[in-house]
Amino acid sequence: MIVIGVDVHKHSLMAVAVDEAGRMLDEKTVTAAGDELLAWASEIDNERLWALEDCRQLTRWLERQLLAAGEELVRVPPKLMAPERRAGRARASRTRSTRLPSRVPRCGSRG
Q1: Are 54 and 106 in contact (CB under 8 A)?
Q2: Which residues of 53-66 are buried (b: 16+ CB within 10 A; e: fewer)?
Q3: What is the per-residue pLDDT across 2-12, written as a single tens digit (0 to 9) for each?
Q4: In sequence order, what are the residues at sequence separation of 6 or more whose Cβ sits closer than 8 angstroms to the Cβ of residue 100?
Q5: CA 72 from centroid of its chain's CA atoms
Q6: For the residues 48-60, what does the mean pLDDT come to?
Q7: pLDDT at res. 102
Q8: CA gyration radius for the chain?
Q9: 59: pLDDT strictly greater than 60
Q10: What angle (nearest 5°) sits at the alpha carbon of residue 46, between those of residues 3 and 108?
Q11: Which pLDDT belongs to residue 77?
């Protein structure tokens, strides 16, 4: 089984698929409210679990789409994601490089 973590923004989202060992298999960025993600995920593995940060104002449409397709999903509490965001900001400020998208789901107001 693979796990697909989704980073959701107002206008786009990024999904990252990892195997049981945590190795990244693939990633995809799509526009919000599209149906491309399911097709992409089905090409990777038939047995999958979706992990979405519990920010329903941004994920409600995706949750409905996934559940209607018979997908399994879990909501990740936002407070569990805060340390990863802080660590990412600290690394970016020290290196002065452009911060890459996190490989874990999180809410965001930027698209």
Answers
A1: no
A2: bbbeebbeebbeeb
A3: 999 998 888 88
A4: none
A5: 14
A6: 88
A7: 53
A8: 14
A9: yes
A10: 35
A11: 84
Look at residues 2, 15, 10 and name the one whose alpha carbon lies nearest to residue 101: 15
Q: What is the mean pLDDT of the chain?
A: 79
3-state SS of 33-64 is: CCCHHHHHHHHHCCCEEEEEECCHHHHHHHHH
What are 74's strand-pairing partners? 51
The CATH class for the domain spanning 2-95 reads alpha beta
HSE-CB of 20 using CA atoms within 13 angstroms: 3
The residue behind tokens 């995809």 is: 28
Angstrom distance (rounded) from CA 16 to CA 19? 10
DSSP state for residue 9 in the 8-state scheme: -
